[in-house]
Amino acid sequence: MRIEQLNHTERYGYVYDAFGRRIEKHRLDRDGKPCNRTTFLWDRMQMIQESSADKRQSLYLYTDEGSYEPLARIDRTGNQEQQIYYFHTDLNGMPEELTDANGKILWECSFQLWGKRIHEIEHESVEQNLRYQGQYLDRETGLHYNTFRYYDPDIGRFTQPDPIGLLGGLNLYQYAPNGLTWIDPLGLMLLYRGMNLAEYDELMKTGKWTSPPSTLEGKWFAESYKDAVTWGEKMGHGGDFRVVQVSVPDNIADAAYKNPRLDGIGKARFIDNVVLNKAKIKPKWSKYIHQPKC
């Protein structure tokens, strides 16, 4: 990649592995040789470590297995003592502050809805490049690396179309319907379901999506967490329940039966149990909702 500014040109190179994960980025000197390398280590589709040219290594910890929401970062430079930093995120998991073990703010940033920086402050010499879940800021371009493509926060769109084509939806460059509550770490769709405790316990016990006799052999999923809570409150008849989040491949989400306003609440998609189980779709996280008794 070549970046041209007034009287100044810089070139950068990016290296990817066979799975499409970026494992290195570097600047090219005048002779075209790589310098200022930053390398990345992955655990499946999670970026868990980066190593920079100044011998700094950063190990990333996430809130849960399979999650892309950052929890902490452990830094070590050369033989120096390691430092532990903690992420403070907004509703959709985007970092807003980075603090040390004593709670001192080392980095903070405010963003517009689709991820454009409003004001960034580095109180210490600690650079923080994580953005929306699964995204890494390339400061040389201002774009966010998003595993299989790049995202431009200035326009709130990807710079390349969805790699699975029209199965990803009609808008091939869209990040997500709502940047406040939706995430798209791999270009997948997140759906939510409010379920009673018995259904949740059975799902956790067997790992299978099932339905009681004489009922639909499938599940309705809300397109927003808020609507899933509303359905849980309505269908639970006042009892406690859980809301689960699932990550659904775009082709399955697109093929699902869609209702623009199910039960007068909001957008929902119906997916057969056979499809859910064959795709091994499991909850990424769940939240217990307590219904106060009158």
Structure description:
With 294 residues, this protein is mostly beta strands. The chain folds into two domains: 2-139, no CATH class; 189-289, Protein of unknown function DUF952 (ADP-ribosylation fold), CATH 3.20.170.20. The chain has helices at residues 197-206, 225-235, 250-255, 273-278; strands at residues 2-5, 8-16, 22-28, 34-43, 46-51, 56-62, 70-77, 83-89, 95-99, 105-111, 117-122, 136-137, 144-145, 150-152, 157-158, 189-196, 218-222, 241-248, 257-262, 266-272, 283-289. An eleven-stranded antiparallel β-sheet has the order 1-2-3-4-5-6-7-8-9-10-11, with no helix packed on it. The chain has a four-stranded antiparallel β-sheet with strand order 12-13-14-15, with no helix packed on it. The termini are far apart. It contains four helices and 21 strands. This is RHS repeat-associated core domain-containing protein.
Strand content: 35-45%
Which strand order do you get reading across the main beta sheet? 1-2-3-4-5-6-7-8-9-10-11
SSE string: EEEEEEEEEEEEEEEEHEHEHEEHE
Mean pLDDT level: 85
What is the count of structural domains?
Answer: 2
How many beta strands in the DSSP annotation?
A: 21
What global shape is seen? Answer: elongated
**From the alpha-carbon coordinates, what is the Rg to the nearest angstrom?**
21 Å
**What percentage of residues falls in helices of 4 or more residues?**
10-25%
Question: Main beta sheet: strand number and arrangement?
Answer: 11 strands, antiparallel
Q: SS-based structural class?
A: mainly beta
N-to-C span: 63 Å
Oligomer: single chain
Poorly predicted tracts of residues:
163-173
**Helix segment count?**
4
